[in-house]
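User: Show me sequence and structure for the first protein, then do the same for the second.

Assistant: Starting with the first protein.
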Amino acid sequence: MSRSARGEFAYQTVYRYLERLIGEADRDGEGRLPSLRDLARRLRVSLATVQSAYSLLEHEGRVRSVPKSGYFVRACLKDEAQAANSRPQPLSALHVPLSCSAALERALLLQERRLSRQSACEESGLRRAVGGAQLRNALAARYTRSSRLCWSAEDVHLATDVQALLQTLLCALHLRGATALVASPCCWRLLRGLQLAGLRVLEVPLDAECGLDLEVFSRLLAREPVRLVVMPAYLSLPTGRLVTELEQRKIAALLAEHPAWLLENDLDSELCFAAPANRRLRDWLEPKGVLVLGSLEAAVGAEAPYAFVLCRHAGVAEKFAQRGFLLPPLRQQALAQLYVKGEVDCHLAPLRREREARMQLLCQQVQLHLGERVVFCMPQGGQALWVRLHQPLASNRAFEVLAGSDLLIVPGDRFSLQGRFHQCLLLVWEGGNEQNLQHALRLLDHVLQEQVPPEDQG
């Protein structure tokens, strides 16, 4: 993903530009924002980059999309907007940018330029149909494992982002107002999506070994009218822990006794440091009750912020067709080619090694500078380190001190709707200068030391 002169990713530059437009809309009363195509042409960036910035603002509740009409500033009081802007850490900080191999991104853009020069599909409508069909076919083939666990292009439904996909999917399955069980801590995008769709969310906590507390899970299934269960496919983020095959089988055995949809979170499996194992939670269940949620962003980066779901329910296809998500057809074709030709898997192997090396360095420095103040385990995937503090952190002070540093901190309670994990932090370091990381950790250590009562410091 390209960076601007000031070191930002392209979508961050677009995001900041849109923030200014939103501020002007608050003053002038004009709520309509530029279209994807107009803004891409104005800022000379790709449609996918603009879509990523708009999706982030939509996640934060600052803009709303109206099908076939465009994007609009959400109506709110001016003082509320000012209060939101004065928070030490905006919700945008919860969207952790996913790193992407520069080689894979170059391959994507080259493929897109090559396709744009072809004249086989001159009509935009035909091009859109071809691009979508190719990408759905590629994803169906990627997820097919056997004659029993097979998917077709008709089972794959694409959307512009995770939030929009969840709202469409849950509406199609008539789950609005239903009760959902979620493994906690949970991806913020999923929690927010379930909340926006009007679901009642119950969280299953961790046990002493940081795995899913199966006793609590079993009790909740037995006594609550659960219609949707959200579980990681393999990699559980933000903790970065892999779900073992034994755990998968135990979870599947409990789900087999209670009729409910399984929404398997496969958004992050590509972020494993080792190649993901063959077994997923869905492998132990009947396919007709399984929904597989995935994203192209984990593998390709923010130039492909699109989400998809694999589902065999007939009503879902109809609802997605009615929603009419507009995804750039050339980008879809280029992504399909990357998967079909094996370029994605070819680039993922070195990218995993790079992520693991960066995480090992982060863990070493955290142990060196914060060792006595935090508890953590080296994660097995992801791009952030989940740590538990011996005492809650004064977040506002920490955000103020670390502002502008290479280290991003996200409060643990943001990964729970029920206020859990007050003593946890997610530490995000995208790499770069090791000395800058050390400086940021020393600042964080100083903030933590300020909170220790004098009698304990002696």
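Switching to the second protein now.
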Amino acid sequence: MNNTLRRLDLNLLVTLDALLSEQNVTRAARLLNLAQPTVSLQLGRLREVLGDPLLLPGPRGMSPTERARELRGPLREALVALENALSPVAAFDPAVSNQTWRIAASDYATTALVWPSLALLRRLAPNTRLALLNKHPANLANDLENGQLDLALHTRDEASPKLRQRSLVHDRYVLAGRRGHPSLATRLSLKAFCGLEHAVMSPNGAGFVGSTDHALAAKGLERRVVLSVSNFNSLVSALAHSDLVAVVPERLVRDEPALHVQAPPLAIPGFEMLMLWPERLHRDPAHRWLRELIASTLETAANSAS
């Protein structure tokens, strides 16, 4: 940093701006709401640090030196820029904003958490844009903190303690199959459940084990998993077009007309979905507005369903 700047403080620069504007110590003191001797002392300090008299006695008060004339414009611009930077953040107006938000969301989070808010978002903030990204959970905290993401929707069990968080929904698992599936006409026994052909969702499309299999293993049982897909939309489509069944989050299938949904014949732990964001965006008006929109929409939907 410039050595001259280290020897000055902001008050001296504000005083210099007033002196260059008024070219009179008394008027500058009045403008600054300071005593005239205080302003005179500050002018002396400015002269010492800048190595220039700055203002010289003249027939109509004080006249700026050439150095002072050179300083006046840049100093005024710098003080205005600093004042603007330190001014209170303007309120967010969604109607005129052209904000782009980047949200990490799986296809489950997209369907269950984002889609319920989308129509309202488009109506209230028609010039904004939304980018939905499927990110690896291990990278979420870094991507949020370094500016690659603005928000993440994820389960509590994998949420980084470094991030701000807000609980959105609790979801449970249900058994789903095509409407008219012959084996789902009545409640299944655990033995019949294990005998059916199952499909699972695995993020990489290669896994055949999930929460249901862990719950069955605790009872010494296993099921027949014959299909693994990489996203829930493919899973729902597979169920609608076959006799496969799947244990899926209830929010994904409760409004699917092509599917029949019932409780599975064993207890499977559900999960909680969170909204995650970095400290750098915690007080940002646009970000706060988006967080509140998503959360309030889901709360309204939950209250309507209860």
